[in-house]
Amino acid sequence: MHPRFAELAWVPTSIGEISLRRRLDPTTRTEVYEVKLDDEYLMSSLFTVAEEELARLTLAVLPEAPLDVVVGGLGLGYTARTALADDRVRSLTVVEALGPVIDWHRQGLLPEAATLTADPRTTLLEGDFFALLRDGTGFDPATPGRRFDAILVDIDHSPVNVLNPAHADLYTPAGLTRLADRLHPGGAFGLWSDDAPDDAFLALLRQSFATAAAHVVPFANPLTAGTSANTVYLATTAPQN
């Protein structure tokens, strides 16, 4: 039997001390995996509905064709694994700035990690998603500037609550236009947010994309015995004429 609490991994990084913990939750009586950055909780396996819906909602607007997908932010792997569950996905590139997070998956420290790491469609790319977008390198080192059918991002808490000040330029007209340029015509951009829909950010999306909408994703919260919600922003580029 596992102990009630275990710190599975811990490492200092350029943005703080990151740790992976496993604990037995007394409310749900299930094992919960959590990632902390210093004293701040980044993610928990208790709350994965919106991360999974990020992939489902974004891929659902794409045509029935082989899809090349990028996920910005690996985390506990829920968005990436949900994308792989779509049989149309031909390739999945997961961009993660923190090498230790990739190592956790390769070492099997997380449940179902092999679903992701053993799938031949998966590429785990260690790199700064924001910097790769900003400097024009893109998300395929072998093909700079390559375009994709979908880009899913789950890194910051929200467009106005970022983990690192260097991330903020993504959520500007110039940053969103750079991201749109990395998509094929008719491609889709999905963004997870912990905040309620933000009309100002939707207006920015509509400057760079042909369509933009915000989807509220409710989920049961066992900690409050109620319902909580996240937001998935979904934007698409104009289709090919």
Describe the structure.
By secondary structure, the protein is of the alpha/beta class. It contains 7 helices and 11 strands. The chain has a single domain (47-236), classed as Rossmann fold (3-Layer(aba) Sandwich), CATH 3.40.50.150. The protein is 23% helix and 37% strand. The strands form 2 sheets. It has a 7-stranded mixed β-sheet with strand order 7-6-5-8-9-11-10. β3 (31-37) and β4 form a beta hairpin. The mean pLDDT is 93.
Order of helices and strands: EEEEHEHEHHEHEHEHEE
Level of helix content?
A: 10-25%
Per the CATH scheme, the topology name is: Rossmann fold
Query: Biggest sheet, strands in spatial order?
Result: 7-6-5-8-9-11-10
User: How many strand units?
Assistant: 11
Helix tally equals 7
How many domains make up the coordinates?
1
C-alpha termini separation: 60 Å
Task: Find the CATH superfamily.
Answer: Vaccinia Virus protein VP39
Residue-averaged pLDDT, rounded? 93
Apparent shape: globular
Topology diagram in text:
Layout: E1 5-13, E2 16-24, E3 31-37, E4 40-44, H1 49-60, E5 67-72, H2 78-84, E6 89-96, H3 99-106, H4 113-117, E7 122-126, H5 129-134, E8 148-153, H6 173-180, E9 183-193, H7 199-208, E10 211-221, E11 226-236
Parallel strand pairs: 5-6, 5-8, 6-7, 8-9
Antiparallel strand pairs: 1-2, 2-3, 3-4, 9-11, 10-11
Helix pairs in contact: 1-2, 6-7
Short characterization:
With 241 residues, this protein is an alpha/beta fold. The chain is 23% helix and 37% strand. The chain has one domain: Rossmann fold, CATH 3.40.50.
